[in-house]
Amino acid sequence: MLKQLYNRTKNTLVIFLVFFVIISMTASAVSAQSSVLNVNHHHTAIAPPPGKIFHIVSHQEAVQNFQNQASSNIAPPGSNNFDAETPGSIACVYKLVNQSANEPGVCEPSNTPNNPVGGNGSIAIISHGDYPTARSDLSAFSEVYGLPLPDASNSDPSNFQVKYVGGPSPYITGLTPPPLNPPGTLNPEIEPALDVQWAHAMAPNAKIFLVEAQSLNIADIEQAFQAAQYLVSTHGGGEVSFSWILGNFSNPNSDTGKYTPPTQEQINSLDQIIQNPSYTNVTYLAASGDIGAPMYPAGSPYVIAVGGTLVNRNANMDFVSETPWNYPSKSPTHSSGSGPFFFANSNELRPPYQDSVKSIVGAYRGVPDITMLAHSLTPLGESGVPIVFEGSWTTDPNGIWATNPNMYGVWGGTSLSAPLAAGILNTMNITNSNSEQTIFNTLYNWGPDPKHFRDITSGTVEDLSTGDPNSGNIYTATPGFDQCTGWGSLVGNATGSVTPKATPNITWSNPADICQGKPLSYDQLDASATNLTSGAVLPGTFNYNPGVGTVLRGGQNQSLNVTFVPGDSTYNTASKNVYINVNECPEKHGFFHQTEYSTFLPFQWG
User: Which end of the chain, N or C, is more open, meaning fewer C-beta atoms within 10 Å of its C-beta?
Assistant: First the structure.
């Protein structure tokens, strides 16, 4: 379900001037297969070795984000003309932070510097295969975006730990790293790179565990789930995020065609592990899938199924709306996994917490429960999020690339939606002390409440799989719960993406003329500030330029400026200019100024 939207090659020209450094980058879109990393699908048509019961797949797709443009002047993550999402922009969209009214736009990626600051307990990311650069990549990613860096240690109390699954139960003492995938296939660490980095971005103070299964053998996969739930439970509680799919596709090189989930026996076995009553402070989340059909383990009634949305942005890159993620016309096609989990060889019945929406889901488990960003739609096309993979981009927050990469990509899909949801739930602190059943009841009780969900009410997704009972079904987003987006997308505790501020009304008239040589005083610098609607006087500080005591040279229409800094933080700073004439006045004689009197009256002595 992992999408690489575009890869870009770069030629860098550096010209040093006296006071400036100009770096120009030209990028051309290339396919994942032709990139310098030789990125291919890690799953092939070759049958798994004997004993391999699950075939775990992750959907990779290269989509040219610049709509067939041969080249574009683009900059890497963190710079102002890059259309990728940032931790700050996503946190703003989902109301984990307030965007200051002094920042232009609405949750615009280049102008939302406020990162989430929450997170507690722990989040476990389950994967398979070794990811040897996980720590250094997370460190580089965190440094670019100003997030807490991972500790150097791989043991408690380190905030980031990689665990090789193995040893006795609970399988957290493995000493041997899993093998990398065979040459010519996509290294499996692409997926955990996305999951680890963006879960950390949403919950920067949570401990992150990367739990690596030794192989695709069913015993190893089940042990990975047990290791993850033990680690999370014993480290403050939290979330387990799973962005892979268990099952097979008839077209495994593109994760399309007919999807066959695990057998009923396999599903029941893993469900038993997930719902272990010994771990009441652990919540599972799983990506719902990328071809419109609900997939496992998102179809489990013990897992929060996370679908995908498009975050729509206008020409100014302002956040406008969310709609279901659905591209049936692209090649290969993709669409957020939706609908009842009902297949010829296995199914999941409707759980009790969905009884309130049984008229919509029917007799079987309805997917998804919630939705989160899978990609964003910008004026340049479909975009997503950057990741650091094997040190492929610089840690310079100004966006100047280091000597390494010849390519970079922007990624997404429901593979992104799941860890985002895990991080946001963690930051909202609603899952760390409750059983999964309580969490589901909470989510479904919250469903109609706009304080907790952004209801997505327009758009569709289409089941793009073939040969299953729901193939071709189209699900429509409607008010309330639907099988297109569930209850909608989670929103955090901030009062809104943008906190508007009032602008004070500055009253200040052009002062009367003064004579040259007379210093400015509060006779001239007498501005006041009021509420525009009520007329109430506002407290604050008036900063004049030029200030009191300044002697102006002679001349007409000389500018005076005041900047008002309000004492009330709900108001913006305001300023105003007025103009004054400074005249050359005649000299005075005696005790009277001749021009001020029509008759000169001499003193009388006597």
Answer: C
446 and 555 co-located in one domain: no
As a whole number of angstroms, the distance between CA 351 and CA 430 comes to: 21
N- to C-terminal Cα separation, the chain: 110
Distance CA 598, CA 366 (A): 97
Average pLDDT over residues 375-404: 61
Whether 264 is covered by a domain: the verdict is yes
Q: Are 541 and 564 spatial neighbours (Cβ–Cβ below 8 Å)?
A: yes
CA 444 to chain centre: 24
The reply to whether 533 falls in a domain is: yes
Domain extent, residue 518, equals: 505-583
Rounded Cα distance, 378 and 375, in Å = 10
| Angle formed at CA 467 by CA 466 and CA 470, multiple of 5 degrees | 80
What is the token pair recorded at 191?
A: 């997926």
Instruction: Give the domain CATH number at 526.
Output: 2.60.40
Whether residue 79 is found in the same domain as residue 125: yes
**CA–CA separation, 273 vs 196, rounded Å?**
23
Judge whether 601 lies within some domain.
no
User: Taking a C-beta distance cutoff of 8 angstroms, is the pair 32, 60 a contact?
Assistant: yes
DSSP per-residue codes, 592-603: B-GGG-SS----
Q: How many CB atoms lie within 10 A of CB 276?
A: 16
Question: Rounded distance, CA 559 to CA 581, Å?
Answer: 9
Q: With contact defined as beta carbons under 8 Å apart, do 423 and 270 qualify?
A: no
* CATH code of the domain covering residue 290: 3.40.50.200
At residue 61, does pLDDT exceed 80?
A: no
Q: Which two tokens stand for residue 166?
A: 């193995």
**pLDDT, the chain, mean:** 75
Number of domains into which the chain is organized: 2
The strand pair at 122-128 and 248-251 is best described as unpaired
Q: Which two tokens stand for residue 287?
A: 């990506």
**Residue 268: strand, helix, or coil:** helix
pTM (2 d.p.):
0.69
The number of beta carbons lying within 10 Å of the beta carbon of residue 542 is: 16
